[in-house]
Amino acid sequence: MERILIVDSHTGGEPTRVVVESPIKLHGNSMAEKAQHFKSHFDNYRQAIVCEPRGSDIIVGALLCPPVNPGSVAGVIFFNNVSTLGMCGHGLIGVAVVLRYLKRVELGRYAIDTPVGTVHFELLDDNQVAIENVPSYRWKQKQAVEIFPGTSAAQSIHGDIAWGGNWFFICDDHGLQVNIANVSQLNSVSLEIRKQLDRLEITGEGGQLIDHVELIGPGTPGRAEAKNFVLCPGAAYDRSPCGTGTSAKLACLAADGKLAPGQVHRQESIVGSVFTSSYQIAIEQASNSSGKATSDSQRILPTLIGSAFVNSQAELLLDPNDPFCWGLVSQ
Ligand code: PYC
Fold it and tell me: Residues with Cβ within 6 A of ligand 1?
């Protein structure tokens, strides 16, 4: 029987399952190559780790790897019930707190390698972490999309297409109240937006798939400036304010001149958890995940502060006689 050592945590309600020891051994000189190897040779392990019956659609996995850059504390590949993720903000906060729990890091600032670039985290105490995400930018402004076309529910909405370590369609004219009581409607509208983006072949830069939809509403007064609902790849929504989604939103606020460098923006999640965020202007035009720089989109360097709590440590057992050993795949 194979064994996988995991430590679970949640960041603002969104779970992260850190894979600490496993039979997964990846080839590649960069984290992007290692992520590709993981996708092509270990997809059954991805399913076994995060899908039912051991996991659920909302768990994000974080495979710890040796670093590829000298000076980085580790490498990490994030994944969920559908595939791998470029980066994951709530997940990185979870990884930092788990590394602390395992006594692999002290309080302080560390670099960690991801498939979309090296990022940094600063462990402020046992639970609170500041992450410095990849350079983020808005690719397109106010992209119009008709949802539910040809039905009585047909509606034209608009969204900004932005990169924050994953691709986002960020919409605030959806007409829905962004609150937990409304979650099934928010989910179905977000799924419909993603379906229409696919049908209309609306993508991120270089034809990259927009796999996250972010619906924005007002934050709870005194608590946050904005609240979001984020549909993740698959059909699950983020319980946290979504680190990469908040980074993409910061890039849009910066591009619109609505948020100055260093100014604080508190992003609330659909369950009421909050990331405190700000940004600096990126000095150099950095590369995005396709390796291509753009001159028309100003890149920002987002910082997000959130807290994670370790809530389980376990050994997953992979019994070859179990008919659902490799997961029950819902998608
Ligand atoms: O926090 O970046 C994030 C994230 C992506 C998907 C789920 N959470």
Answer: 14, 60, 85, 88-90, 232, 238, 240, 242-244
